[in-house]
Amino acid sequence: METKKFYELFKNVKVYDSIPALFLSDISTIVISDLHLGYEVAMAEKGIFLPKVQYEKEIILLKRLSEFKFKTLVLNGDIKYEFSETSYHEYKEVLNFFDYIKTKFKNITIVKGNHDTFITRITKKFQLEVVDEIKINKYLITHGHVLPKSFFDEDWDTMIIGHEHPSIALFDELGVKDKLECFLYGNLVDGRNLIVLPAFSYISTGSEVNLLPKEELLSPVLKEYALLDDFKVLAVDEEVGLLYFGKLRNLRNITTM
Amino acid sequence: MLPMSSYLEDNFIFLKKPFGKKESLSVLQPYVKAWFEKNFEDLTPPQRFSLKLISEGKNVIITGPTGSGKTLAAFLSILSELFKLGEKGELLDSIYVVYISPLKALDNDIKKNLTIPLTEIRKLASESGINLPEIRISLRTGDVSSSEKQNQLKLPPHILITTPESLAVILNAPKFSIFLKTVKWVVVDEIHELASNKRGVHLSLSLERLQNLVSHEIVRIGLGATLFPLEEAAKFLVGYENNAPRKCYIVDVSWDKKYDLKLITPVKNLVYSSADELNDSLYNILDKAISKGKTTLIFTNTRSGTERVVFHLKEKWSNKYNDQNLGAHHGSLSRDIRLEVENKLKNGQMKAVVSSTSLELGIDVGFIDQVIQIGSPKSVSRAIQRVGRSGHGFKDVAKGIFIAMDRDELVELIVMLQEARSRNLDSIEVPKKPLDILAQHIVGMSLYKKWKVEEALSLIRSCYAYRDLTEDELISLLRYLAGEYVELEDRKVYGKIWFDPSDKTFGKRGKYTRVIYYLNIGAIPDEVKVDVYKLPGKKFIGGIEESFLERLRPNDIFVLGGKLYKFRYARAMKCYVEHAPKGSTPTIPSWFSEMLPLSFELALQIQKFRENLKNMLVNGKIKSEIIEWLKNSFSVSKDVANEVYSYFKEQYLYTKTIPGYMEILIEKTKDEKASYLVFHALFGRRVNDALSRFFSIIVSDELRKNIGIVISDTGFALIMPRSYNLNLQKLIEKSKSMDLESVLKDNVRRTELMKRRFRHCAARSFLVLRNYKGYKISVNKQQLSSQTILNIIENKDPNFPVLKETYREILQDVMDLKRAKLVLDWIKEGKLKIRIIETNIPSPFAHNLIILGEEDVVLMRDKKKRLLELHEKIMEKISALG
Fold it and tell me: Which of A135-149, B220-234, B324-338 shows the lowest mean pLDDT across its residues?
């Protein structure tokens, strides 16, 4: 039994293998979100002394991304974890990170997330621009923690957000719970497209979208403007690859076997 | 001259013959002797041994029943010595005695009980013209205010009463610890409660650190109820020096007490009575028994059971029982409530108190007529300990009534009470080399000074639990605590100590380390509580454990605070529920983490009992003969004998056999829900915990399926796929060539148990702090599940010390790897027979097991395959829905 190697969510919008990234082939752009660099040290400051695993894992994934030879990389928010003033350790990790992606992509765009206060301090060094939202051709890319300014503009037809860290929870006949990160995609109330990215971060605690009622979700776009029940679920896992689950409505009814 | 010892192992001297009264009392100062003779007619048995031994500075363990004067046995000689120093003007303002008990309530009692003789002796001496200085006693527990601690610093007590946790704190108190340098005696009370768990190991390492602090040998005195083997307890108490245990005298007078043990069932027929009939009858029995005596102590095995009994008694007889004369006492209740109950007990105001375990310790409870035990206490020692709470003094007969609530319990209790009468106790074992406890002490030691590895190793090895600690093991722990698993520049955040491998030294690091140590020490695991809110409206209704939440599926029904709720969803460690529809039943047992294990020794005795009955049935003995045999050999009533007879007869008629001694019977069976492989393997749940996982792993690997497990004391069941194809005989053959330990080690991470225990070990090892920088940590609750942390650590280093300790704790403390291995060896050697039978519905002996419900799951090895199969099933179901 093998899984499919790629899925096309909408025309020119693809997902490959076990990579939590979105490939926009018409504009040669890759979108990732929620990298949460520096998470471990931020946790250690609070008394949870985790070994550092995230940075290395993300660099490996980025290397795989670079092999697709796309021109542009969009970091769609929450590149780093800490809310407050960037600590030294995190700073270094983020610096190394930008050093690395600079060598791999021709253009880099940074979309600000709710965790990205103080990020300009670093991006200035690399002469990178930070925006709240960006429109490229028909795409509107924004982190998703607030409703973007261009939301009601008519010059885009596909919106891409992160922030929610969507995942699905599944139970087998013995009651064992498995949690899988996933892409969510479907239509907004006005008929345009919306795609929610899974977190690029290895340590992610996200919303179990098939168990939670709509009002418990984080993103106002999802909560108020999406036809959520008809959204489709594409799970992505490091070991398993891609698993398509169909509409969220059905999955809500069949969480337990 | 010492009396002749009846048994001599080089360093442990078992005393059988007491010293004479005169000889004993002659060791006391005249005014102490006078006080004793004025207040007591005679020495109690433990006192006849202890006064002289302690006055000679010997280490001694004294075990005896409640009320046998153990406190004075330990303290009389010490008080006399202290007064003698005072008389000579040599008594310093410093600590001479440290008394440690596992309970604050007991600490309070001891202080009170020592204050009386201290005052009276001084008064008596002054009457004969001798002016003695005051001997001060102070409490030092978590409840002591900081102003009181300040006072103790200004004027330290001579006798310090404390708990294991507080002792570990004061060992590191920069100023107060100076007063510990004069300590001459250490008294450890309730040693049976401490010797076999991590809390005790924590204490024993503190004792060695205390010994290291002073320049003379400290005299160690251990007090406790009966326990076995006493050599193990002695090693635990006195530790090692120069590669041999320190010398210790052992005084066991626990059997001087007489016991009257009775066994009953609430109804004549346990199987054909409904739950309501069973409960009605139980409460009637309780009411009758309570009404007859003045004060009755009732033990249940769980906290929820305790609450239930109190609730129903008050409800049924509201005119008779109320908050003033009937109460519950268990660890989850607030301190004030417990204190109130204890006080009313002492004053004889309570008709009955219901308790889970908290009242089995030596808190002063006043006069108790009788003890009622609902269900099996699971060990002979615990049975004796609980019943021993009744009776005025040790000369009174202790009365205990045991109520069996099902037929397995009935059989268990018959054998248990017989063993109690024959004085066959189950054995204790001190956990070996728990790395999490050691991590705490290393941090504590490094706060005190800079250490050479060699020097630290020698101190640690003087503690029995760490006797065999290797230098490599210590160094790997030092590296972990020094934060070597992250890069150099991050270590100032991660490191609690520094470690220099070039000259093998270590010491403290970081400004928060002292605070971390104070706020996070201790061995009692802190369950992460998840708040539960009721929908709609999100009203807070209580808390559940994280591990419990992890098992909940949407629409599961569970009990909280006596009410039924339906689980909806969880978010950020908050759990949302709604009222369960009328008439629903719980889908998750609420007691799954509270079970006490049946001891292995007792389990084997029950096997023998089964064997005997099997032989009688096979040999065609008639009912009356068997009933007579039961009545005569086990002192049981006719009703009890009848019930046991029908249980065995039914099983025999149904399966043509009974699982006997040195035998495992495997029953292939099914019910409307699932197929099962029921292993009638009577070894106690710690051994079955290991065996069940061993066999389910083999089955899971063979079938490439997830396998559910049900575990009990009398056996275990594997929950199988509805239909499967398995050659059991071949599988058993295959199991013979497999190594239990490595199979379990490789696979324990595929179980739920791992997550739960890892959380505890991570907290104890200071990997995930409970308190940091002065405030309770809630961030770990909100952000990271145990599973996530576990994944990260495993990914980084499979030999991480916290992981290693989790495996050790699971294999050796939760499970009983050693004896499980023994059982498998018996199978290999052919000493233990395995037979396989097949039934259409579960046999009577399998019933109790199957209704317990699944407890854990062994996941199939291949995660990818597992998820792909699950995906396929879900998609099938979705397409079936259309």
Answer: B324-338
